[in-house]
Design a protein that fits this description.
This protein has 259 residues and is α/β, with parallel strands linked by helices. It folds into two domains: 109 residues, 3-Layer(aba) Sandwich (Rossmann fold), CATH 3.40.50.1000; 103 residues, 3-Layer(aba) Sandwich (Rossmann fold). The protein is 34% helix and 22% strand. The strands form four sheets. Strands 5-4-1-13-14-15 form a six-stranded parallel beta sheet. A five-stranded parallel beta sheet has the order 7-6-8-9-12, sandwiched between helices. Helix 3 packs across helix 7 and helix 5 packs across helix 6. Its EC number is 3.1.3.-. Catalyzes the dephosphorylation of 2-6 carbon acid sugars in vitro.
């Protein structure tokens, strides 16, 4: 197996299943730590803060993690908007989202507004989404605000079944406004560029995950090697039908040697 100098690693379905640990995943992270190979957890989830993810990894899964080792789609969205030269100075944001997105935009570059007079409409999963928010966001976009979405994931797995994801809300606003959003999260480029920057732009990184459509395509489309682990969403039958195959495929992390 090739030597990689940095790992970008998905979370749910890859490192754990909700609150349930994946024992092989912890052993994999332990091997990375022992080998002193840099890694960053990269998640499309925008609702939780990096500190909350780090706390869960440490306490629920016995994987000691700092907030600096987590990069969420909310953080990537804030980085993308901050670096957008289309608007100079402090940028006004109409934000639809939860704690993770709100914290990510708590920066000097931004001013959050509660009306349609905004430079950007930024949207993530919001379990308190309602018609008023949809109306305000629609008006803002009609007035010229740029439409930015953390991710396009239509559904999220849960114990009850497949829950509506951020993508289902984004679709409502896209329909109402007639404008297609800029998507930040995997498999799109912005989150990958932000993650690689945080790892000091390694020469030979690899993207690791369980979902071909998000994790593996993110690597393929952005020039990274890929490692698909069959502990989550994608199945071998589904992946076999894809035109572009992952660089590596494993049933679980005990089959992966860190060199």
């Amino acid at each position: 197996m090739a030597q990689y100098d940095a790992y970008l690693i998905d979370l749910d379905g890859t490192i754990y299943h909700g609150k349930n640990p994946i024992p092989e995943a912890k052993r994999f992270i332990d091997r990375l730590k022992d080998a002193k190979v840099p890694y960053l957890f990269v998640t499309n989830n925008s609702t939780k803060t990096a500190a909350a993810f780090a706390d869960d990894l440490t306490k629920l899964h016995n994987i000691e993690t700092t907030p600096e080792q987590v990069y969420t789609s909310a953080m990537a969205t804030a980085d993308y908007v901050a670096n957008d030269d289309a608007v100079k100075g402090v940028k006004t944001i109409y934000l639809i989202g939860e704690a993770g997105l709100k914290e990510a935009f708590n920066r000097p570059e931004f001013k959050l507004v509660d009306d349609a007079h905004a430079d950007y409409v930024v949207m993530g999963l919001d379990r308190e989404f309602n018609y008023q928010k949809l109306m305000t966001a629609t008006f803002a976009i009609q007035k010229g605000a740029k439409f930015i979405a953390t991710n396009a994931d239509t559904n999220l797995p849960s114990e009850k079944g497949m829950l509506p994801g951020a993508g289902s809300l984004v679709a409502a606003l896209q329909t109402a406004s007639g404008v297609q959003p800029t998507i930040i999260a995997k498999p799109e480029a912005p989150i990958m560029q932000g993650a690689l920057k945080r790892l000091d732009n390694p020469e030979k990184p690899i993207m690791v995950g369980d979902n071909y459509q998000t994790d593996i395509l993110a690597g393929i489309q952005n020039g990274l090697s890929t490692l698909l682990v069959y502990t989550g969403v994608s199945t071998k039958k589904q992946v076999a039908e894809k035109d572009v195959q992952p660089t590596h495929e494993i049933d679980n992390f005990d089959q992966w040697e860190v060199k």
